[in-house]
Amino acid sequence: MFTTVLSLHSGYHFCFVSRFCIPYIQFVNDNTEPDPGQRKREQCLSHDEKWRSFPKVPNLLQYVSNSNYYGRIKVGGKTIRESLNTDVWTTAKLRLHDFLKKQKLDSERIVAPLFTEAVVWFKQELESNSALKPQSKRYRLWCLQKLETSWPEVLKLRLDEITDVACKEWAAKLQKKIACHYYNNTIGTLKQILQIGIKNHKEKSGVRLDNPAFELKRTKIKQKDLQLPERSQFRAMVANLRKDSGGWGPRIGDLVEFLAYSGMRIASEAIWVNWEDVDEKRKEIIVRGHPETSTKNNEIRRIPIIEDMANLLERMRPKSGEAKGPILKIARCNEALRRVCKEMGIKRLSHHDLRHLFATICIESGVDIPTVAKWLGHKDGGVLALKTYGHLRNEHSQAMAKKVKF
Fold this sequence. Notes:
The chain is an alpha+beta fold. The protein has helices at residues 22-32, 89-108, 115-128, 134-150, 164-175, 180-205, 231-244, 249-262, 307-316, 334-344, 351-364, 369-376, 383-389, 394-401; strands at residues 3-7, 13-17, 44-45, 51-54, 57-63, 69-75, 78-83, 278-279, 284-287, 301-304.
């Protein structure tokens, strides 16, 4: 083996190499210029040597035991790892891109609000609703309280976690425990809360959720079995109240008679009537209601002064000086009514039952139902009055039956 070098004046150098050196030169070249496709990928093993990671592809993992690839990303402090269902490197990188894109979209998506958040929005809307009277607002809050105590689990859920099946199961249990009106208003409150939450979620995320309480049905209102005192019983009851209720007796008697002879609602109407509202010329009482919230239907009405009311007002009128200010001196008499009913052996009466008594006596006396409805402040032309007072008590029913002959 030999090598000869020739130098020329032009600066070029020529080299003669033995043919025995050529295989060696070729071998060196093969090792110094490896094929890029044969390079080893940079990789690291986890401490337990179960997972292989790749520094240049940070979101890619390979499970050592079966060579399957996984995508990994941290979102909101939580690490998400999901199989890419392949053990091929090039396929894994393609699927990793889709995995990362999906996780990014999921992280940007706004989650549905909690039920408790919807409750806060409901309370805010309820408070700012100027069309509702304070008593109506308080009643809605009572319904909300019943909802929360009868279904505490719902307070931990997001709106999209509340199912229609869960709503129906809760409603079925509740219906057996509370009165029809209360039940209807409680499920109505649930529907409102969910609808407010759904509306807010749609405004923020653009995602529309269905109201899971939509299919809840109102229960049929059972007709109240009015067991009111007969005329003779009412007179005896008033006499007992005036005599056996201590120093408050006369004022309690006045309140009971005033309610029975006018048919007014006590809290929103009767206690706000002043002597100035008594129209002596037209023999009417002007019912204005609460100074701020008016009557239940937001309308001022006039009711006639029947003979018994005229006699009562005459007794109540101040003996000296001009009659001014509130007619009634007390605002309730529940305990006295409870006592007298128990002593007389009749069904317990409430303030509102005296309103029922007024309507029943009027109808039995021959006053048509639309007129009675107008005196009561109903705006339906007598539909509710007919449903509530269309029956007659036993005393009047028997008297009318005697007139029926074939």
